[in-house]
Amino acid sequence: MKEGYEALNEDTLRGRMGAIAAVADRLGGDPADWQVKEVGDGNLNLVFIVGGPAGSLIVKQALPYVRLVGDSWPLPLYRAFYEYQALTRQAARDPGSVPAIHHFDEAQALIVMEYLSPHVILRQKLIRGERVDGLADFLGKFCARTAFRGSELSMASAEKKADVALFCGNVAIPAITEALVFTDPYYAADMNNHTEGLDPVVEKLRNDVALKVEAQRMLQGFASNTETMLHGDLHTGSLMCTDAETKAIDPEFAQYGPMGFDTGMLIANLLMSFFSQPGHRSGAEMTGMQDWILGVIGDICRVFDAEFRHLWVTERTGMLYPKALFEDQGHDSAPACDRVLRDLWADAMGACGIEMHRRCLSLAHNADFEAISDPALRAPLEARNLMMGRELVLNRFDPTTPARIAEIARRHNEEDFL
Ligand code: SR1
Ligand code: MG
C-alpha cells in the first residue's frame, strides 16, 4: 500500500478534500457545510457524491481489498492509476464519452470527477423498463472509436507499445477477469454460486469439454493479444444515462486486449436484460421492452461497423494495413477491413457468450436476474441465457449479423431448458 494512504469516510472527506483547490473551488462555500454521501454500489470501491453551493462532484477511492468480499481478498490500489490513465485515453479517443476528471491523487488512489446528473446506471433503467434515446449510437461509436484509435491501425507503434508496457503493470485486475469471467464458470470454483434449480444446465455446461476448450482459447487471446486498450468491464453497470444521453464510467479493468472484447461484454449484458425482462414485467410492456433491447443490440452492431469502416478510410495511419500497401498501389483495402471485422466479431461473440455464463455462475452476478426474487421464475430465464451463451461461444466464427443475434435470442427465449 502507498505510504500515507487512508480510506476516506463521510466524516474525514470534508477536511481532506477541502484542502484541494480543484475541489474546493468547484464546490464553493465552507467545506464543513458540504453534503457528503457514500453511494458506491459496485464490487470494489468507495464512491462519494459531494455537494456544495457551487456544484457537486464525485470522489472515487480504491480500497485495498475487494469490497464485495472484504479484506480477505486484498487488491492493489494501483487500479485507480489505471482507471485515471484509461479515462484520459477514452476522453481523447471519443471526446465527451466519459466524465471529466478534476483531480487525481495516486497515493490516495483517488479520482475526483464530474458528477453525472440526472444520469442513472443503465442496468437500473433497463430493470425499470426505461429506454434511452441514442443509446446504440453512443455505444457503437464509443466501442469502434476506442477500439480503432487505441490500436496500431491508428496509433504510432512506439506510442502504442509504450502504452501496452504501461498497462502491463496492471496485473491484479485482469487476473480477476481471467478467473471470474473465463475460468470459474466452467467448474465448481470456491466463490461460485448459482440459482437453485439451475443444476441441469450448469452440469451440461461444465461437462461440455468443447465449450471449456473454446473458453480457454478466448482466455489465451485475452491474455496475449494486445490489439487495443479495452474498457475491460463494459457492462450496463458501467454506463450512466439520462433518457437521451449516455456516458461510460469505471474503466479500472482497462488493459490492452482483443478489439472485440468490450463490444461482446456489452452485448452480453443487454442480452441478459432481454432474457430477464419476464421477471420484471409482462404482456405488451415486456415484449415491447425485449424488442427494443434487440433493436439496440442490432443498431450497436450496425453503428460499430459503419464507424469502424469510416475510421479505416479516414484515420488508418498506423503500421497495420498501411495505405502504402493498398490504396497507393491502386488496391482496394475494403476486403482487408472485412477480414479484420470478421475476426473482431468472432472475438466479440465469444466474449459475449462467456460473459453471459459468468454473470449467472461465477462470483459477481448482475441485478437483472438477482432482482427476480423467486428462484422458480429466475432459473428458467437464466437457463435461456446460459444456453444462448454456449451457442455463441461454440459458433462464434459464424458471420455475426444483427439478424443472427436476434434470431438466436428469440429462439432461446421460447425454450424451457429445465
Ligand atoms: C471481485 S470483482 C467482480 C466483478 O466486479 C467488477 O465490476 C468486474 O465485473 C468484476 O468481474
Ligand atoms: Mg465497475
Description:
It is a single chain. The protein is of the alpha+beta class and 418 residues long. It is 50% helix and 12% strand. The protein contains 15 helices and 12 strands. The protein has helices at residues 13-18, 21-27, 79-93, 122-128, 135-149, 157-168, 172-180, 199-206, 209-224, 261-276, 283-314, 334-361, 367-370, 375-394, 402-413; strands at 35-38, 45-52, 55-62, 65-66, 70-74, 101-105, 110-114, 120-121, 228-230, 239-241, 246-248, 255-257. The chain has a 5-stranded antiparallel β-sheet, sandwiched between helices. The protein has a 3-stranded antiparallel β-sheet with strand order 8-10-11. A two-stranded antiparallel sheet has the order 4-5. Helix 14 runs antiparallel to helix 15. The radius of gyration is 22 Å and the shape is globular. The termini are far apart. Bound molecules: 5-S-methyl-5-thio-alpha-D-ribofuranose and magnesium ion. Residues 42, 233, 238, 250 line the site of magnesium ion.
Q: Poorly predicted ranges (pLDDT <50, ≥5 residues)?
A: none
Work out the strand percent: 5-15%
Helix residue percentage: 40-55%
CATH class of the largest domain: Alpha Beta
**Biggest sheet: strand arrangement:** 1-2-3-7-6
What would the principal axes of the Cα set say about the shape? globular
Determine the mean pLDDT: 97
Named once each, the bound ligands are:
5-S-methyl-5-thio-alpha-D-ribofuranose, magnesium ion
Major sheet: 5 strands, antiparallel
Class computed from helices, strands and strand pairing:
alpha+beta
Helix tally? 15
The CATH homology group name of the largest domain = Aminoglycoside phosphotransferase (APH), C-terminal lobe
Give, in order, the helices and strands.
Answer: HHEEEEEHEEEHHHHHHEEEEHHHHHH
* Overall number of structural domains: 2
Looking at the structure, the CATH topology of the largest domain is Aminoglycoside 3'-phosphotransferase, Chain: A, domain 2
